[in-house]
Amino acid sequence: xxxxxxxxxxxxxxxxxxxxxxxxxxxxxxxxxxxxxxxxxxxxxxxxxxxxxxxxxxxxxxxxxxxxxxxxxxxxxxxxxxxxxxxxxxxxxxxxxxxxxxxxxxxxxxxxxxxxxxxxxxxxxxxxxxxxxxxxxxxxxxxxxxxxxxxxxxxxxxxxxxxxxxxxxxxxxxxxxxxxxxxxxxxxxxxxxxxxxxxxxxxxxxxxxxxxxxxxxxxxxxxxxxxxxxxxxxxxxxxxxxxxx
Length: 245
Known about the structure:
Layout: E1 15-19, E2 21-24, E3 31-32, H1 34-48, H2 52-56, H3 64-71, H4 78-92, E4 97-98, H5 102-111, E5 116-119, H6 124-134, E6 141-143, H7 156-164, E7 176-180, H8 183-191, E8 195-199, H9 205-211, E9 215-217, E10 223-228, E11 235-239
Helix pairs in contact: 1-4, 4-6, 8-9
């Protein structure tokens, strides 16, 4: 999480930018399910016989199937991983909170039929479960852990996200906005040819800068949807109170 004493303040002037689509990470970007994830890995650690504290140091932004493969390869299959992740929102739903500004931003994008999607390291049951429990807008397109062979920081997930929005991989660099919270996700978005806005909800500003984020804000209250030009397909986004360069 950002340390406001050691890092620059979130104080830059408002900036207007235009994109043709927006791709969101899920945990740490739209919701904060840290408390639920801790309880989940404590339970799985007891069942499979590993130290959950070690896992929690590296699990954020990483696919569960890749983590479990390190400790019990026999359980590293989508049937098992989808099952255990699908239980998280049902068992620990009260432990998650929305990132400030997420509900407003997603609702405004969906209401205007803006091309947007969620691109996450979580499984489909996990993502849809959280959206239902939190009563947040559902995108028409999802890219989940099961859809890719290599997780973040590889760009595969965001390239697939662009494709699912009907955007070719050859689009001019920066025409798609990725919104992320983790350095691995920032790297994946940049490698996929996107502009990346990072929210400093789970990592330090210097980590996000080092990963290549184009803008860093405190949370989604700093990201405003201003309108969609239906002729050009341009999505007008205003970014305010970003970290000063």
